[in-house]
Amino acid sequence: MVYGFIKCPARFYYEIFSSGTSFSFGTSFSFGASVSSHLVHFLDDLTKTLADVSVSVSSAKFRIEELIRTLLHFIRTLLLLALPSVPHKEPPIMKDQSVMRENTVASEIGKFNLLQEQRVHTYRLFEEGHKIYLSTSPNYDFPTFRQLVHDVTQEFKRISGDIIAIEKNLRSSGNNAVADTILAIQECEKKKLELTAHLQLARQMVTECSEGELEKMKEKEIRAELGHVVEEINDHLTELRYEIYNGE
Fold it and tell me: Which residues, in sequence order, are bridge partners of residue 22?
């Protein structure tokens, strides 16, 4: 094989590219995923083989050293052609901590807004259920209303638990101002639920005692107090929107 290469190197290259399968230096070579491993073994075998070769040609035009350099150059070229190209990947961009904090705020407030909408919807169901309950007077359908109260209580409990988790996440990420606002809303919502229960009881007393001025006054006071709490909640919600705007 060495003599064939010395006599006709161009023909030797052509035979390799045409077959693309093997060399006669003890190592099989095939293009594919393991091409680099095969070429490493091939180069080792080639070096050892050429080191042991004794060529006695009186008019040789190539020295063994030149043959080795030529073959190594060819193999390196072949390696570059055979290996698949690796797509260039941009190095990961480290986000600024302030950007990460803004993303956290936006994400958590989005979750909070969704939960707040669910809470408003639950209040509406509670109010509609109580109106239906009052319409069954004087023989109140208490079992149905009791089940409604149970379902509503569980839903409010779930919503409050999720919002508390949001408040903790914001605080742990350093967004204390937003967390404080959400905590204030939670406190107001607690008052609102208590006042709603008192208002429903007062309305039932007014229904049963239509001439009772004391009951009507009590209902009016609770309704006014509940209105103040609702205004306070709306103020905190506005403050929360400003927090989002300032963050952007």
Answer: 28
Out of 57-71, 97-111, 128-142, the most confident range is 128-142
Residue 69: which of 23, 8, 18, 5 has the closest Cα? 5
Alpha helix ranges (H) inside the chain: 2-7, 9-19, 35-52, 64-82, 97-135, 142-172, 176-208, 213-247
Greatest Cα pair distance, the chain, in angstroms, is: 135
pLDDT tens-digit series, residues 55-74: 444 444 445 555 556 555 55
What residues have CB less than 8 Å from 31, skipping those under 6 apart? 20, 82
Pick from 148, 236, 230: nearest CA to 193: 230
How far apart are alpha carbons 86 and 83 in whole angstroms? 9
